[in-house]
């Protein structure tokens, strides 16, 4: 905010109308000095009163702002013009005070008045509306404005000794960094939500892994598989599934081979029976019988192996049906966790940039 014009009428020690033209100092640096009681603090009181309907010092109220030396018919009023971000604002404010009646004896109370003229030309005449607009325009409340803009009677020390949280709030409003604070709060909220989602996904994964059938009971193979799933070792899980596919194909091939041998054995048995019926030689029969016995033994071994492989195949299918959805969800979870990690890193970088900007602004104000 840059002050342009201040006019005081029947205000404080000034019985008449006084004007302070700040536009004479375009460089923006000026000094208000004078003897004790000459009215220096009144200038600050007038500015603060025009903006916030209160004096700049805590010990001075608005009830004694009217000059004791003013003419009874002269209105107590402060007119203040200032610029902010290249736009001109104008405000007039009068306190409530008592003045002698024009006729008869006694005192008459004059009501408080305010008028705020915005750059658009719109006029705000109601106190509540004008006061709220000033806070919105300047970004500071009366207490904060008095502590950082009004260095009257050394009261600036109150800002220096204010709690850190209060200083942070003041600096945030001065430099309009509320947006960064909102971003920080939003980032913290999003980070918390993402962490909760990851934690829920991990619990779901642990639950699904617990439902995986234990193909090899408590063997190292089964324990290793569950450990790889929980640890996110997708390569190991994929290798295990590929191994299941290869074992399945081998089991199917062996089953077909056993079926073919069984068919051949049946054919040979039928041929031997036919040969016996046709009266073939005993030696041929004995030889054929010997071969038949060998084939019979091989068939019995093969049948046992086939039964074992068939049972293993059934258990493999159960594992595969349970692992495949789990593997797919794990891949989706891994991709989501990578995305969350990337977003968390981005949020962290934005948070660091926000904090560095706020720290730089704080250091700049401390230097001033």
Describe this structure in words.
With 368 residues, the chain is an alpha+beta fold. It folds into two domains: 2-174, Rossmann fold, CATH 3.40.50.300; 188-359. It is 60% helix and 13% strand. It has nine helices and eight strands. The protein has helices at residues 40-52, 127-138, 142-148, 157-160, 164-174, 178-210, 220-230, 234-277, 282-367, and strands at 2-11, 14-21, 77-84, 87-94, 97-100, 107-110, 113-117, 123-124. It has a six-stranded antiparallel β-sheet, with helices on one face. Helix 6 (178-210) runs antiparallel to helix 9 (282-367) and helix 8 packs antiparallel against helix 9 (282-367). The protein is rod-shaped and about 160 Å long. The mean pLDDT is 77.
Topology diagram in text:
Elements: E1 2-11, E2 14-21, H1 40-52, E3 77-84, E4 87-94, E5 97-100, E6 107-110, E7 113-117, E8 123-124, H2 127-138, H3 142-148, H4 157-160, H5 164-174, H6 178-210, H7 220-230, H8 234-277, H9 282-367
Antiparallel strand pairs: 1-2, 1-3, 3-4, 4-7, 5-6, 7-8
Helix pairs in contact: 6-9, 8-9
Helix content class: 55-70%
Strand percentage: 5-15%
Characterize the main sheet: 6 strands, antiparallel
CATH architecture label of the largest domain: 3-Layer(aba) Sandwich
CATH superfamily of the largest domain: P-loop containing nucleotide triphosphate hydrolases
How many beta-strand segments?
A: 8
Helix and strand element order: EEHEEEEEEHHHHHHHH
Side-by-side strand order of the widest sheet: 2-1-3-4-7-8
Number of self-contained structural domains: 2
Which topology of the largest domain does CATH recognise? Rossmann fold
The geometry reads as rod-shaped
> What would you call the quaternary organization?
single chain
Average residue pLDDT: 77
Low-confidence stretches: none
């Amino acid at each position: 905010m840059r002050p342009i014009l201040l006019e005081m009428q029947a205000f404080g020690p000034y019985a008449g109308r006084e004007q302070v033209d700040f536009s004479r100092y375009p460089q923006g640096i000026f000094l208000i000095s004078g003897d004790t009681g000459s009215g220096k603090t009144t200038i600050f009181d007038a500015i603060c009163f025009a903006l916030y309907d209160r004096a700049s010092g805590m010990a001075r109220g608005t009830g004694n702002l009217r000059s004791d030396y003013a003419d009874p018919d002269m209105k107590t009023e402060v007119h203040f013009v200032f610029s902010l971000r290249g736009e001109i604002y104008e405000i007039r404010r009068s306190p409530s005070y008592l003045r002698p009646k024009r006729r008869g004896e006694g005192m008459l109370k004059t009501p408080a008045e305010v008028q705020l003229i915005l750059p658009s030309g719109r006029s705000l005449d109601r106190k509540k509306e004008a006061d709220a607009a000033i806070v919105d325009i300047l970004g500071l409340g009366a207490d904060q404005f008095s502590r950082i803009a009004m260095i009257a009677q050394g009261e600036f020390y109150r800002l220096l000794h204010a709690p850190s949280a209060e200083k942070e709030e003041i600096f945030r409003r001065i430099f309009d960094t509320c947006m960064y604070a909102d971003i920080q709060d939003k980032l913290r909220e999003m980070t918390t939500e993402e962490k909760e989602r990851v934690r829920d996904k991990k619990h779901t994964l642990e639950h699904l892994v617990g439902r995986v059938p234990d193909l090899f009971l408590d063997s190292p193979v089964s324990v290793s598989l569950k450990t790889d799933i929980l640890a996110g070792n997708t390569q190991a899980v994929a290798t295990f599934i590929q191994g299941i596919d290869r074992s399945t194909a081998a089991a199917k091939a062996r089953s077909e081979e056993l079926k073919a041998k069984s068919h051949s054995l049946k054919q040979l048995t039928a041929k031997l029976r036919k040969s016996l019926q046709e009266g073939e030689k005993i030696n041929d029969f004995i030889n054929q019988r010997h071969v038949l016995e060998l084939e019979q033994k091989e068939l019995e071994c093969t049948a046992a192996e086939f039964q074992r492989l068939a049972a293993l195949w059934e258990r493999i299918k159960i594992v595969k049906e349970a692992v495949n959805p789990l593997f797919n969800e794990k891949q989706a979870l891994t991709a989501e966790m990578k995305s969350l990690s990337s977003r968390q890193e981005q949020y962290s970088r934005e948070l660091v940039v926000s904090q560095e900007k706020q720290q730089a602004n704080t250091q700049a104000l401390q230097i001033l």
